[in-house]
Design a protein that fits this description.
By secondary structure, this protein is α+β, with helices and mostly antiparallel strands. The protein folds into four domains: about 25 residues; about 230 residues, no CATH class; about 60 residues, Pdz3 Domain; about 100 residues, PDZ domain (Pdz3 Domain, Roll). The two termini are about 40 Å apart.
Length: about 475
């Protein structure tokens, strides 16, 4: 039975359960889109007990004032991203599914870790609302579970009539408690993830992420080249051997040390159609031997030699392809014009900078720098404050968790690795949920906090106008980021 068959069967069973529940069990079940709200009084007693400590007064009061500040900072971030988005070419726009932090819809969120993280984030978000309500003597009508084939969250339902009778500041505190809890959990879980990362160590060698070299496979860990020990990716990249020479290599593959031979050099792993290399007939898999008579011994010499020329100049390139030597006379294009053509608004190179129209890799492999990766998950701020965005973006590189072929590049027990990944996703989803909910946009919590700011209550017409204007501005910024890269 395929996964598609299983999914179809689960959906069919869910439809039957859904229909029966909302028709027969209205007292305990309520529809919530395609999901079911399963109501119960059991959680109320637990929330009552937890909320008795005075700690929650300090917690709720802090986030009552902090949420508007975080909301302003998040809007500033949205404005900054609105300008950055102008430089993203249409071809690089990510699918809209990436905008939703839902496992199973967003392809970068793993189902297992994602479901657990989302349940924890949503459940504690709602429980925090309940705790804040009880600290203000607002009764809870019901609590329960949000169920869609599997549990996907929880809900807490304060008595709305009593809520309306409370002061605006009290209502604001109830709304601020949810995102406050998510941001607190995000802070806790990022600390746990960073500490766990220190128990993971890099495997010795240069791991292969992808390869067009028949002697090397994804997942291999290169140990030596030409009898020179390779301890890391940087050691591999700094090699300088005769291009086109046959060299011995040793790799760890599936836990075994193997000895192979390969042709050393800078391989062409991609050719851009309509540009010099493609027009000249240079093939993917070719090894660049010389450019203008200069030997190409590694990626640095390839770039350095090429940079001595200008767009429009003719240069002779020799290569090795399928055991045959080839010579090409090519007229170099402008890298500036190429970058402009693919949508870049700031190419960052002079108009005369040369472009051959190829992607190249040493030995025809894309290596995975396990040392740099571990440095990122141990200390995200090591490369500056903005490096935190790379840490948050690791899933978009499919690096949290790592693809199975790269698992051997890290040395750690399966328990530690799974705890690391789980802690990361608990951080990531709590951060995403908290950051989303602090936005000053009704019906998000941040919007209701804004709506209940005490000094705005003197003139409800003005208050409603301010809330509507701010909400529309935030909505515009969000839609802008979804639409602009696609037009």
């Amino acid at each position: 039975m395929s996964w598609l068959d299983i999914i179809v069967i689960l959906i069919a069973i869910w439809i039957v359960i859904y229909v029966i529940a909302i028709r027969v069990g209205k007292k305990y079940f309520a529809p919530y889109g395609p999901a079911l709200l399963i109501k119960t009084q059991a959680g109320i007693r637990t929330i009552d007990k937890v909320s008795r400590t005075k700690f929650w007064d300090y917690f709720v009061s802090f986030f009552y004032y902090a949420v508007p500040v975080f909301g302003i900072l998040t809007v500033i971030l949205l404005i900054w991203e609105a300008f950055l988005i102008l430089s993203i070419p249409k071809s690089s726009a990510v699918p809209l599914s990436y905008a939703l932090a839902l496992p199973g819809i967003n392809p970068v969120i793993p189902i297992g870790y994602g479901v657990v993280g989302l349940i924890v984030a949503v459940a504690l978000h709602e429980i925090s609302h309940g705790i804040a309500a009880r600290r203000s003597d607002i009764p809870l009508r019901s609590t329960g579970i949000l169920w869609f084939i599997i549990p996907v969250g929880a809900f807490v339902e304060p008595d709305e009539e009593v809520m309306k009778q409370r002061e605006p500041k009290v209502r604001g505190k109830v709304f601020a408690a949810g995102p406050g809890m998510n941001l607190t959990l995000a802070a806790i879980f990022i600390v746990i993830a960073l500490l766990l990362a220190y128990s993971i160590v890099p495997a010795n060698g240069a791991p292969v992420q992808s390869s067009i070299n028949p002697a090397l496979r994804p997942g291999d860990i290169i140990q030596s080249v030409n009898n020179v020990s390779i301890e890391s990716v940087s050691a591999l990249m700094s090699m300088s051997l005769t291009p086109g020479s046959i060299v011995p290599i040793s790799v760890i593959r599936d836990g075994k040390l193997l000895h192979e031979t390969t042709i050393y050099g800078v391989y062409i792993v991609g050719v851009v159609g309509g540009y010099p290399a493609s027009d000249a007939g240079i093939e993917v898999g070719s090894i660049v031997l010389t450019i203008g008579g200069k030997s190409i011994t590694n990626l640095s010499t390839f770039e350095n030699v090429l940079s001595n020329y200008k767009a429009g100049q003719e240069v002779t390139i020799t290569s090795l392809y399928n055991s045959s030597y080839h010579s090409y006379n090519v007229t170099l294009a402008s890298k500036y014009n190429y970058l402009i053509s693919i949508g870049s608004s700031n190419p960052g190179v002079p108009r005369s900078y040369p472009f051959l129209g190829v992607q190249v890799d040493l030995l025809g492999i894309s290596p995975f720098d396990q040392n740099a990766y571990l440095n990122t998950i141990r200390n995200p701020l090591s490369s500056g404050v903005l490096a935190i965005f790379y840490y948050l973006g690791l899933p978009f590189y499919y690096e949290m968790p790592l693809p199975s072929v790269l698992q051997s590049s890290l040395i750690a027990s399966p328990i530690v690795l799974n705890l690391e990944y789980l802690s990361y996703w608990l951080f990531w989803l709590n951060f995403a949920l908290g950051l989303t909910n602090i936005l000053p946009l009704v019906p998000l919590d941040g919007g209701y906090v804004l709506l209940n700011i005490p000094f705005l209550q003197k003139n409800q017409k003005l208050r409603n106008s301010i809330v509507a204007f701010v909400g529309l501005a935030v909505l515009f910024l969000i839609v802008w980021q979804l639409v602009i890269p696609r037009i």
